[in-house]
Amino acid sequence: VVQAVGYGTSFIPQVGWIVSLIIGLVDKSISLGEPYRDLTNYTDVIQTYNQPIANYKAFKTITTNYDSNGNMPIQNTTTYGYGTTHSEPTSITSVIKNSDTTIPASIAEEKVESLVKYSREYNTTGVTSSVNESYALKLLNDRRYNVPVEIITKKNNLVVSGNYRQFSPNLTEVGLDYITYGLELIAPLSTFTLSSIVSGAVSKSTSYVPLVNYNTYNAKGLVTSFNKYKAPTTQVNYGYNQLLPTSIVMASNASTAKTINYEYDSPLFGIQKTIIPDGTYTTSEYDNLGRLKAVKDLNGNLIRSYNYNFISKIFANVSSDVILQEKSGASFIDKKTLLDNDTYQSTTGSFLNIKVNPPSVVKSIVVSFDNKYVYTTNYTNNANSFVVFGTTGFEPSVLVNGSQKIGTCKVKVQLYSDTDGRGDLIGTKNINFSIY
User: Which helix (H) or strand (E) holds 408?
Assistant: First the structure.
């Protein structure tokens, strides 16, 4: 089934459904002790219909995210391109558009594209050498495997990163990594040619450099020896039917080799003891669901713990008045409760301020001015007191030449269930108002 899907066919699930139906009918007949009956002529009972058998591929998805007021949409349009030798997407392009007019046009839209080349796209006809990397691709194609070989990432039509996988040419390691490469770039590239097979050998970009060499594997297909580029070899030893790592030997081919050992307990939820090179160790404890509960040092002292208790979360949109104040002498005087698209005539040279009156469920408040100046305060419901932001009005955030800003101001108030802007966001209010 995997091979058929890799080839881009989709008739197998239909066959599976038909076989299941037949088995179900036969099983029912046997269980009820009824003889086999030919239902060919039961046209009044069995109705035939046509069901299309074809590939269904996604060509475009559009996702739009809005702010809490249903405004400022950010649209992500993703399109998919396909080749002819298989059914996997060979190009995935996302265009992200931000409608916020305060963001410069040069960064309000971004295009990110991934180009993927699969093993089925390499023409391995005529490849005979059993020692080069093209032979490894031939082994994949002979077995009708289809795996990604090269992935290139572009941003705004420029290549910014890339990876290439060279597979093992050994018959017992078909499809296992031999060397992984990455693009080493000084600057983004405007042009790039994907790898291919030319005259029986793989031709790829000279900007690729080796990242990791995978030297050996065990019978389960797990790597037992590898080394990063120009780094000493790391050896991995396995136990438990060769499935779980029991030790990792770093710089195994040098006199400075260091070993980390792992011990497991039953049931095998995870590593029970980790012994580092100096002989000290940590132990891990798990709950009955296999989740990590605690990590302790060799003396049993708790290093860190994890609590999976569930609490009731508050998602209600808690309301809170936002009041505009104007400075009078040494204090601020309430002027009006602000509504969205409000206006206020300010005394020349005066300073304005914002205060919020949240309910007791609120533990902290975050207020931002003009989407860039942020004030955070913790709140304790003390005799329904107000929380005042700033002591000299809007501070320098929206002041122009030492006097209060004239024009449009944006205020965003966010209410949280915990201190310091943490916990659940339980209330929010966005207000645009004009000062004249």
Answer: strand 407-416
Give the C-alpha separation, 21 to 27, whole Å. 10
The pTM of the whole model exceeds 0.85: no
Please calculate the CA angle 276-280-281 and round it to the nearest 5 degrees. Answer: 70
Residues 56-79 have pLDDT tens digits of 788 999 999 888 777 888 899 999
Angle CA(226)–CA(149)–CA(87) in degrees, nearest 5?
Answer: 145
Distance of CA 375 to the CA centre of its chain: 30
Averaged over 371-400, what is the pLDDT?
54
| 228 contacts 251 by C-beta, under 8 angstroms | no
Cα Rg for the chain, rounded, in angstroms? 33
Structure tokens at 127: 């490849």
Closest CA to 118 of 149, 152, 89, 91: 149
Distance, CA of 113 to CA of 95 (rounded, Å):
9
Say whether the peptide bond before residue 13 is cis (omega within 30 degrees of 0).
no
Task: Collapse the DSSP code of 192 into the 3-class scheme (helix H, G, I; strand E, B; otherwise coil) and give the result.
Answer: coil
DSSP string computed for 263-317: EE-SS-SSEEEEE-TTS-EEEEEE-TTS-EEEEEETT--EEEE----------S-
Phi-psi group of 55: left, alpha or beta (phi > 0 → left; psi -120 to 50 → alpha; rest → beta): beta
Pseudo-torsion of CA 261, 266, 268, 271, nearest 10°? -30
- Answer for the pair 341, 397: CB distance below 8 angstroms, yes or no: no
Q: Are residues 338 and 323 in contact, defined by beta-carbon separation less than 8 angstroms?
A: yes
Write out pLDDT tens, residues 187-230. Answer: 999 999 999 999 889 999 999 999 999 999 999 999 999 999 88
Q: Do the bridges between strand 321-328 and strand 331-337 make them parallel or antiparallel, or are there none, so unpaired?
A: antiparallel
How many CA atoms, within 13 angstroms, populate the side-chain half-sphere of residue 349?
1
